Amino acid sequence: MSATDRSGYTFRRARRDGNGDCDGNGSGNCDGSGSGDCDVRANGDVAAIAGVDDSFTTDSIFRVSISESGFALTEVSLASPLTKQFPAGPDDEDDEDDAEGGADSHRHATFVAADPDGAVVGFVSVAYARWNRRLSVCDLAIAPAHRGRGVGTGLMACADEFARDCGARHVWLEVTNVNAPAIHAYRRMGFAFCGLDASLYEGTASAGEYALYMSKPVAGSSVGDDR
């Protein structure tokens, strides 16, 4: 089973192979119900997911001002548009099991969005940590031609359902300060700034940028749950 929105996009759990879904029961529900965990690198949708263009172009960025008492963000216009292409290669998913609590305390899932022709045009990968009941958005990408059509909202709805199923208290993500389009989209989805890291990108192609952290509470989450 999968969910289709009014624009014709279908949202489902990423497939492990041509027949089953990552929850192992073939249901494909956005809530991720089932016993198995999903690693995007091990499922049958991996090629389609890797082919999603995650670059972006923006006319503005968020300037970061840091003082002893905190930091401030100011959106500023650019003299010319900035286009950013993220480098290809493995991300930091291998570090997930090194966090406090170990592999048994984590659940992973990936959800994809398909257009009416069945082509994968976006995805979101998430990981739940039991020790602080946080669902982290590890990666979210939407093909440029399909942005602004509710695909991101649909994918985040899948993440929200998975968060409730896990018993998460909040959803958390990281975004660079130069990705103003994504920041505005996350704000519309209910995310708010909760922190900053001025050194996360040092030594990378994104050196000089700031990592902004955003989070939002999980509606309907059971405070007493601990899955």
TrEMBL record:
What are the protein's UniProt keywords?
Acyltransferase, Transferase
Q: Does the keyword Transferase apply?
A: yes
In terms of PROSITE patterns, this protein maps to: GNAT (PS51186)
Ranges annotated as biased composition (Acidic residues): 90-101
- Compositionally biased, Gly residues: which spans? 21-35
Give EC number(s), comma-separated: 2.3.1.-
Q: Which Gene3D superfamilies does this entry report, sorted A to Z?
A: 3.40.630.30
One Pfam short name: Acetyltransf_1
Region Disordered, annotated ranges: 1-36, 82-104
Give GO terms: molecular function aspect only.
Answer: acyltransferase activity
Residues forming the N-acetyltransferase domain are: 64-219
- What this protein is called in its record is GNAT family N-acetyltransferase
The upper taxonomy is: Bacteria, Bacillati, Actinomycetota, Actinomycetes, Pseudonocardiales
